[in-house]
Amino acid sequence: MLIQPQTKYQSFQPIDLSDRTWPAKSISRPPIWLSTDLRDGNQALIEPMNPAQKLQMFNLLVQIGFKEIEVGFPSASQAEFDFVRYLIEHCLIPDDVVIQVLVPAREDLIHRTFAALKGVPQAIVHVYNATAPAFRRIVFGRDQDQTIDLATTAAQLVYDLAAEHPETRWQFQYSPEVFTSTELDFARNICNAVLDIWRPTPQHQAIINLPASVEVATPNVFADQVEWMHRHLIPRDSVILCVHTHNDRGCGIAAAELAQMAGAERVEGCLFGNGERTGNVDLVTLAMNLYTQGIHPGLDFSQIDEVAQVAQDCTQLPIHPRHPYAGELVFTAFSGSHQDAIKKGFAVQKSDELWQVPYLPMDPADVGRTYESVVRVNSQSGKGGIAFLLERDYGLVLPRPLQIEFGQVVQKTMDTVGQELSSADLWQLFTREYLQGSPFKYQSHQMSETRSGWKIVAELEREQQPLKIQGEGNGPIDAFLNALDQDLQVCHYEERALEQGSDAVAIATIQLKSAQEQKGSYGVGIHPNIVTASLLAILSACNRKHP
Ligand code: KIV
Ligand code: ZN
Fold first, then answer.
1. Residue 352: how many CB atoms within 10 A of its CB?
2. Of 190, 265, 338, 430, which has the fewest Cβ atoms less than 10 A away?
3. Is the C-beta atom of 219 inside 6 A of ligand 1?
4. Are 229 and 187 in contact (CB under 8 A)?
5. Where does CATH 3.30.160.270 sit in the chain?
6. Which positions ≥6 away from 249 have C-beta within 8 Å?
7. 499: pLDDT strictly greater than 80
8. For residue 501, is pLDDT > 60?
């Protein structure tokens, strides 16, 4: 049983910002994206990426369109250092991409970081130190002034070392780590103290990154914190305000979105939400959330399965089947009413109109998904899904009452097999039920016109014995029913082409009813000759009546 939590945990105090403006704002353009897959993402892996995987991830990020990529923590290990050197020495960084590296506010590590960056055309040096009270007290034993001193000393060293290498275009970034639990006025003081040293300008901005290193409150609280900082950073026009949300409470996406409404211009995160503990914010979801609001994110996820595959190969972490936009099942409907609505939506959706297919927040084709997975049939599905699959994959358009009838056939099978049926399974079931019945089998027929209508002579098989029948009527169907002498009336008849083109195949569906029956049963015939298709449909209905 869970303990009474009030003795162990406390709620986060709201921010005093009664004139907050972010709730009335909306996001109208994408942020500057920074991928930290190779740093925060990599450091959180059970097995960190090897050099080949790192390169594969780097190339993927470039291909997606990231222009800022945090490629590592070069002072943390030789492997991290070597990867940065490898990118630089092999000229693997495109001209329009800037790499970023992380370094703690420590003199020796800053020197090592600059050594790793030697010769790079442009780079962002990202310095951080933890600023939250618990960290100051428990981890570092430093008070507020000493913590500011640590940050400013590091900022000065970064500034000086950069000045020694004017061949590189430098940009500086500072993160008050654990910002979410840091007193706001202290966060402001330390960020402004760092900015004071870097003296950014509107032409050469510094980045202030506000990390939700641990997510501790609802996303509106984070938005308040960000808006508060947005109002207090000096000089604001010389700062790119960035957020870096983690997902401890499952709100990393919401926090990053509300933070943009609150003034953040840049977002750091990882593909599919990889990262420490519950992960960094998922940049794929953030980008696609923009896309489905009609805003191009500037990142290309048009082949999302390929991106997911590379990410999984590099991280060795699976992507959940229900992961937004990328999971295997996220465009799939199993429930009958959803399938019905989707089928109707697809039928009226025009390619040049706003997307309005019910239950599908976006067109799966936009992320390279086929419509194959949109509808899948299990025991909770209904006629809509079954009809959708048969139409999509076999060109079979079934009249509604036949959909209902076949739906019951499928349901019975489903109750016995108990597992999902593919469209091939459905087609097989349909074939068995309607096209391969017995005792009657069609062999051939001849039609001739009489003075009063039509005469048919048909060769059939009944229980594997030849059977020749003949009859007359006002048309082929009437003549054939008379020849069969089964006392059946036609309740519904429909014929249409199964395929387009010159060698089109006809599908005839017929509902036949005897005098004693309330409702008849359906038969289906498929044949290139439309009359033969109708005769087959009649035999199919007879077979289903007397199997
Ligand atoms: O989550 C975090 O605080 C970080 C910083 C180092 C930016 O990853
Ligand atoms: Zn982080």
1. 4
2. 265
3. no
4. yes
5. 440-545
6. 215, 216, 217, 218
7. no
8. no
Residue range 383-435 in CATH 1.10.1220.20: yes
Residues in contact with 235: Cβ distance below 8 Å, sequence separation at least 6, in sequence order: 195, 200
Distance, CA 40 to ligand 1 centroid (Å)? 7
Measured in whole angstroms, the distance separating CA 482 from the mean position of its chain's CA atoms is 58
Distance CA 327, CA 319 (A): 6
518: DSSP letter: S
- Reduced DSSP (H G I as helix, E B as strand, rest coil) percent helix, strand, coil of the chain, to 5: 45, 20, 35
CATH number assigned to the domain with residue range 440-545, chosen from the 4 options 3.90.650.10, 3.30.160.270, 3.40.50.300, 1.10.3720.10: 3.30.160.270
Pocket test for ligand 1, best of 244, 246, 280 (most atoms within 8 A of CB): 244
Residues in Cβ contact with 476 at an 8 Å cutoff, skipping those fewer than 6 apart: 447, 454, 456, 531, 534, 535
Q: Ligand 1: does its nearest atom lie under 6 Å from the Cβ of 177?
A: yes
Tell the residue number behind the tokens 């959803």, with chain if given: 338
pLDDT, greater one: 546 or 188: 188
